[in-house]
Design goal:
The chain is 59% helix and 7% strand. It has 198 residues and is mainly alpha-helical. The chain has one domain.
Length: 198
């Protein structure tokens, strides 16, 4: 192998530091791992945004006369989802390079040159995610992941970032199993509702 080419990043062509030339097992995170990490983050945000509704339900269950209208709490919960998602991701990615969901699956977000993700890159990734959720298709950015060697989603390409992890093969098996189980359960539940309880 050419030592000169080994000393350069295979993504951007930039010269690598001595530390970054050392072999490690960090590789790009694949489709299933990233979808599971994103789903975990959405679950956390949805649970947090549901706190007003849960509080009102608890007050009503306890018989409190001053409990607010549950329709108002549902509206509040719905209105805070996107701002909460934005703030959560922006702070977590810009400060730590990962979120709780990504950390659960061992995923970190870096610049293509290996530098930590900054505020601007985090904002670009999140802005595209919000637009796709509201107006297109929630996981459209991830549809690019299986077809690129760098496993970059469309939001990664816009922001100049990559998602990396260790032992991606093992994690892919676990995550595909999770997705298949959840998907199969959803299909079975839908079939039961449409054919048994109609």
């Amino acid at each position: 192998m050419n030592k000169e080419s080994d000393a350069r990043c295979h993504i951007c062509g930039g010269e690598l530091s001595v530390a970054s030339r050392q072999p490690d097992r960090t590789e790009y995170a694949g489709f299933a791992v990233r979808v599971c990490a994103c789903a975990a983050d959405w679950l956390l945000v949805l649970l947090a945004s549901a706190l007003p509704l849960l509080a009102v339900t608890a007050l009503r269950f306890a018989g409190a006369r001053f409990a607010p209208d549950s329709r108002a709490s549902i509206l509040v919960s719905a209105l805070i989802v996107i701002p909460l998602w934005t703030a959560y991701n922006l702070i977590a990615l810009a400060r730590f390079g990962t979120t709780l969901g990504k950390r659960l699956f061992g995923v970190r977000v870096l610049h293509k040159n290996g530098e930590p993700c900054d505020f601007v890159s985090s904002f670009v990734r999140i802005a595209f995610g919000i637009v796709s959720v509201l107006f297109v298709f929630p996981l459209i950015g991830y549809l690019f992941v299986p077809f690129r060697r760098s496993k970059q989603g469309f939001h990664d390409q816009l922001a100049g970032t990559v998602a990396v992890t260790k032992n991606p093969g093992r994690k892919a098996v676990v995550c595909w199993t999770i997705l298949a189980t959840v998907g199969g359960t959803g299909v079975a539940a839908t079939w039961l509702v449409l054919n048994v309880y109609r």
